[in-house]
Specification:
single chain; alpha/beta; Rossmann fold; 12 helices; Alpha/beta-hydrolase; Carboxylesterase_BioH
Length: about 350
């Protein structure tokens, strides 16, 4: 199937399972789609920190439906997922405006608006889960001091030290990348223009093609070039600033989790582990200044309060791949120990 489109996504909402609902958050630019998942009405325990999910490039809030249903209905954790402008049912800039003039900062502002809405509704900080380029945005807003969060999960995310290596991996994986881009008149979705390319970039080899096609039909029709380009060169964030915007640091708990996918052809395990090491250094700086220089072994088995986990067999879209339950359970375990 061929996926390139030059007009905005038709406003056809994906169906939501029981327990999930759709909200729209008003901003000065337009409305943003927010999918919410509440625990079952029979649940009578304490209200827990909500989890806020942020999709990556070409994505939308619906990519989190499986995880949100599992976390909210089985583990009683309220969940929210945002569609940035130009994605899902959020407001759509024109092709030229989105592709050439929408910056990563503009998209980060959408993320901040979504989080602040949920904070106001829930009266508490969120646990922020960012995937791919959405993980990059998650780090950017914390580095800038826009919000505080109760925990941070970077799932197959752009590393804190920049994404040049990620796109080098993509070019190595797809030798026709550049020529195809010119053939498609520099359309930003060119690297994901058919079933084979989407599957190779996002999923493991055993993912059925029919499911890949169903996933691709909900991808945004065009994407911002300035979003990935703005994360490519140089350091993305100062990890010390990110760590300081995460609340509740205490002995024997982890507040950051780096979640890698074993078969990810874009964000390798080596790159994700490197990001974990960077954040461990940032947490140690915090320990020296705020926890009276406690040694790392006071923080349990996950050295320096940063948990690193690998989802075996999964591709880049680990939340939508065959092994999605494995990653979801890792998020539950991380949330439980906060």
């Amino acid at each position: 199937m061929f996926y390139l489109r030059w007009t905005k996504l038709a406003a056809e909402p994906c169906s939501l399972p029981s327990g999930l609902s759709r909200i729209f958050v008003d901003t000065e630019n337009g409305r943003l789609e927010l999918i919410a998942a509440e625990p079952p009405s029979s649940y009578v325990g304490p209200r827990r920190h909500p989890i806020f999910f942020q999709h990556g490039g070409m994505g939308q809030a619906g990519v989190w439906i499986e995880w949100m249903s599992y976390l909210s209905q089985v583990h009683n954790i309220p969940c929210y997922a945002l569609s940035l402008r130009g994605h899902g049912l959020s407001w759509y800039p024109s092709f030229i405006s989105m592709v050439w003039f929408t910056t990563k900062r503009a998209l980060a502002n959408d993320l901040v608006s979504g989080i602040k809405y949920v904070e106001g509704k829930e009266k508490t900080e969120v646990v922020l889960v960012g995937h791919s380029s959405g993980g990059g945005l998650s780090q950017i807003i914390l580095d800038a001091g826009d919000v505080n969060v109760a925990g941070l999960v970077l799932a197959a995310s752009i590393p804190c030290y920049g994404s040049l290596g990620v796109y080098m991996n993509w070019w190595k994986m797809d030798l026709w990348f550049t020529l195809r881009m010119w053939k498609h008149f520099l359309h930003p979705n060119s690297p994901l223009s058919n079933t084979y390319l989407v599957k190779r970039a996002f999923f493991c080899d055993t993912k059925p093609d029919s499911e890949v096609d169903a996933f691709a039909k909900n991808m945004s029709h065009y994407e911002s070039f300035l979003w990935p380009l703005g994360m490519m060169l140089g350091r993305l964030v100062d990890v010390r600033n990110v760590v300081r915007r995460i609340s509740g640091w205490k002995p024997r708990s982890c507040r950051i989790m780096i979640l890698a996918a074993e078969k990810d052809r874009l964000m390798s395990i080596k790159q994700m582990y490197g990001a974990a090491e960077h954040y461990r250094g940032g947490v140690m700086d915090l320990i020296k200044t705020k926890l009276d220089s406690q040694s790392s072994d006071h923080l349990g088995d996950d050295v320096s309060g940063v948990r690193f986990r690998v989802v075996g067999g999964a591709g880049h879209h680990l939340q939508n791949d065959v092994q999605w339950r494995v990653g979801a359970r890792e998020v539950v375990e991380f949330h439980e120990q906060l």
